[in-house]
Amino acid sequence: MDEPHLGPNRHHPDKFAAGLLSLGLQLEDRVAIASGTRLEWILADYAINLAGLATTTVYPNTAADEFAHIIGHSASKVLIAESAAQLAKIDSVPELVDQVRHVVLIEGSGDGERVFGWDEFLARGAAHLKENPEVVREAIARTTRDTLATLIYTSGTTGVPKGVELTHRNWVYTGFVVDQMRIITEDDLQYLWLPLSHVFGKVLLACQVAIGFSSAVDGRLDKIVPGLGKSTPPSCVGRRESMRRFAPRSSREMLKVSKASSRSGRLRLGGTAMSTASPGVPCQPPWASNTKSPTAWCSAS
User: Fold this and answer.
1) Residues 30, 151: contact at Cβ < 8 Å?
2) Residue 296 and which of 112, 205, 218, 241 are 20 to 30 A apart at CA?
3) With respect to CATH, is domain 181-298 assigned 3.40.50?
4) pLDDT reported for residue 239
5) What is the C-alpha separation between 75 and 29, in angstroms, rounded?
6) Per-residue pLDDT tens digits for 78-94
């Protein structure tokens, strides 16, 4: 397979991973992401696993008390926040201010010490990578099939949200199985809009790495219909109820999408749910391949 193209984002996961390692984080330390689905969410998640760390997923609309529980219970040491509104949920709880040593803002700037802007943190990582060229590869070498990769919190039936531990083995297996099913190939394009804080959104990321297809990423609900029209993907995964909700509001646009997609292949609607907020950005992991080694899906080559 030809090397995938991410344009200016090609080296972001390596730089971001190096930035995390420059903070002194150790194997399986937790890094929380509180953001809607967008390209930066994906790049940060790959970087976290490149560094041998674990992603704690947090829905951006999580109430402050539940937010505090998830961050505290997971012992997350770094927060990647979509905006200052997410940062405020941390700063309102003194215990979390002590626990969460650093924050990276996707939108906005920081103080350069505890809080970093996105580009500022990438620059920090690039500098650390220049001084320590092997730092990311060394972190990958420490990562095994059974290293913790993700903590996903689910509300369950009673009480506070419970954390579900998912290892690299879980994601590699999932990607491998979907690849063997041949329901989507490396030549396909999917429209990715489901929330990545949900396990199904993360499944789709694992599948993309294993198979090598591309995604148009935009989690803004009001942009789904026009986004489908622009990208005309043969694949769009979503809850059936969600697709029914969108279609009646804009049946004409959906008809245009269906016709446009039928010219390039077929439009598959079904499954469950996902989202992202950098409109129409082709996103394909730079290390995507059909190799099934335990850390191939998160190794920077």
Assistant:
1) yes
2) 218
3) yes
4) 60
5) 8
6) 999 999 999 999 988 98
How far is residue 221 from each of residues 60, 192, 250, 275, 277, measured CA to CA in Å?
14, 11, 13, 8, 9
Distance CA 292, CA 41 (A): 24
Fold for 7-166, please state it: Rossmann fold (3.40.50)
| Alpha-carbon gap, residue 289 to 301, rounded angstroms | 10
Contact indicator for 38, 219 with CB cutoff of 8 Å: yes
Q: Report the residue count for the chain.
A: 301
Q: How far apart are CA 101 and CA 94, in angstroms?
A: 12
Residues with Cβ within 8 Å of 283's Cβ and at least 6 positions away in sequence, in order, are 6, 9, 39, 42, 192, 214, 215, 216, 217
Which of 51-55, 63-67, 214-218, 275-279 is predicted with the least confidence, judged by mean pLDDT?
A: 275-279
Identify each DSSP E strand in 88-156 by its residue range: 102-105, 115-117, 148-154
Average confidence (pLDDT) over 255-273: 38
Mean pLDDT of 142-166: 89
pTM of the complete model: 0.77
* Spatial distance between the Cα atoms of 79 and 73, rounded to a whole number of angstroms: 14
Q: Specify which residues 57 forms β-bridges with.
A: 33, 152
Domain ranges of the chain: 7-166, 181-298
Q: Contact at 8 Å (CB) between 36 and 60?
A: yes
Reduce the DSSP state of residue 163 to 3 states and report it.
Answer: strand
In angstroms, rounded to a whole number, what is the distance separating the alpha carbons of residues 14 and 126? 8
Asked if domains 7-166 and 181-298 share a fold, the reply is yes
Average pLDDT, the chain: 78
